[in-house]
Write a structure and sequence with these properties.
The protein contains twelve helices and 16 strands. It is α/β, with parallel strands linked by helices and 367 residues long. It folds into three domains: 192 residues, NAD(P)-binding Rossmann-like Domain (Rossmann fold, 3-Layer(aba) Sandwich); 81 residues, no CATH class; 56 residues, no CATH class. α1 runs parallel beside α12. The structure holds uridine-5'-diphosphate (UDP). The site of uridine-5'-diphosphate has 12 residues, from α6.
């Protein structure tokens, strides 16, 4: 008999297992994939750590979370800066003085602010209700059309007017010549990739891979007192109220016999005529000097029950549906739901860690 069965060997599940094991709880982790690490997993291919499920850059403002993750790996000084190709030209992201100069030839912050304010005024909406309106009130029409609209509509497979405003607020706007994609105090990539973090988190714990909880849930429920479930919440309840919406991805990875393909870890593509949203060149995360390179093109896909769910689509419709599932979790005293899929939230890595540590603190005071 296990104290805890942990479903999913991603960040949420692995951290729970590690912390519970530390206080003497007997844990079993199962995962339907053939590897640990969830979407954070990296595979070392001839010395290049390939981010198999999209680019993962660790960033946080929270010292406790930064110290926590640093127990399991040494982080380098990588700073994420994205360039976007739009209509044959290259622009810096996020929106900053370099971007404004590339678009309008503005030199000073005052000139750039004036340009943006003119455009925002022309648009005239005070309280934005969707992503398009939010973008137009933050940065105006030129930037929206050059750098946001195409990427967003490819990424999410719908009109930007049908998406929640908060998604675009993930990106900072700066009136300095600073291309850092994040504004957080701490940032980096683990030297040697992310998988080592999960190896350390799970080293004293029994892990069963290629094992699907939902295919045999009554058996698994019978072998553990408590379940920590980090899979899709709607699938757990057999889509009782209907499926929540997700966005899926397909990845095309190629090894190229050249040293440097694009000169940056991530280049975005805004044009809708190009079917992928971004190309990641993995070696640049760790300043690799190999004489070859590995790149991954990311193609957004419609999600259905046969595909992997990468992004929750947190619009009003889905949030209402999620609330119903959340209510239903109250009938499951044996189970706790956590992580990006369990909580149906567009979490970054640091937020998943935050959520897991908060849950564990509460749990430990009740044990
Ligand atoms: N986005 C955009 N243009 C870009 C990059 C991002 O319009 O070049 C928008 C898009 O809607 C995207 C959101 O900003 O879904 C969040 O981007 P982020 O880079 O945080 O996405 P992630 O890395 O999580 O896929």
């Amino acid at each position: 008999m296990y104290d805890y069965l942990i479903v999913g060997a991603g960040l949420f599940g692995s951290i729970c297992a590690y912390e519970l094991n530390k206080i003497g709880k007997k844990c079993l982790i199962i995962d339907k994939r053939s590897h640990i690490g969830g979407n954070v997993y990296t595979e070392n291919i001839d010395g290049i750590n390939v981010h198999k499920y999209g680019p993962h850059i660790f960033h946080t403002n929270d010292k406790e979370i930064w110290n926590y993750i640093n127990q399991f790996a040494e982080f380098n000084n990588y700073i994420h800066n994205i360039t976007t190709i739009s209509n044959g030209k290259m622009y810096n992201m996020p929106f900053n003085m370099n971007t404004f100069n590339q678009i309008w030839n503005t030199i000073t912050p005052l000139e750039a602010k004036k340009k943006i304010e003119e455009q925002i005024k022309k648009f005239g909406v005070k309280t934005p209700n969707n992503l398009e309106e939010q973008a137009l009130t933050l940065v105006g029409k030129d930037i929206y059309e050059l750098l946001i609209k195409g990427y967003t509509e490819k990424q999410w497979g719908c009109k930007a007017t049908e998406l929640p405003a908060f998604i675009i607020k993930r990106l900072p706007i700066r009136f300095t010549y600073n291309n850092n994609y994040f504004s957080d105090r701490y940032q980096g990539i683990p030297l040697g990739g992310y998988t080592q973090i999960f190896e350390k988190l799970t080293q004293n714990i029994e892990v069963k891979l290629n094992t699907d909880y939902l295919k045999n849930s009554s058996y698994f429920n019978s072998i553990a007192k408590q379940i920590i479930y980090s899979g899709k919440i709607d699938e757990f309840f057999d889509y009782h109220f209907g499926a929540l919406e997700y966005r899926s991805l397909s990845f095309k990875t190629e090894q190229l016999e050249i040293e440097n393909f694009q000169g940056n870890a991530q280049v975005n593509y805004n044009d809708v005529s190009i079917p992928f949203t971004r190309i990641v060149e993995h070696k640049h995360f760790e300043f690799g000097t190999q004489n070859f390179t590995i790149i991954t093109k990311e193609f957004p896909q419609n999600w259905d029950k046969t595909k992997e769910a990468f992004y929750p689509i947190n619009n009003a419709l889905n949030q209402n549906l999620f609330k119903k599932y959340e209510e239903l979790t109250k009938t499951q005293s044996q189970v706790y739901f956590g992580g990006r899929l369990g909580e149906y939230r567009y979490y970054d890595m640091h937020q998943v860690i935050g959520s897991a540590l908060t849950y564990l603190k509460k749990l430990k005071t009740n044990i």
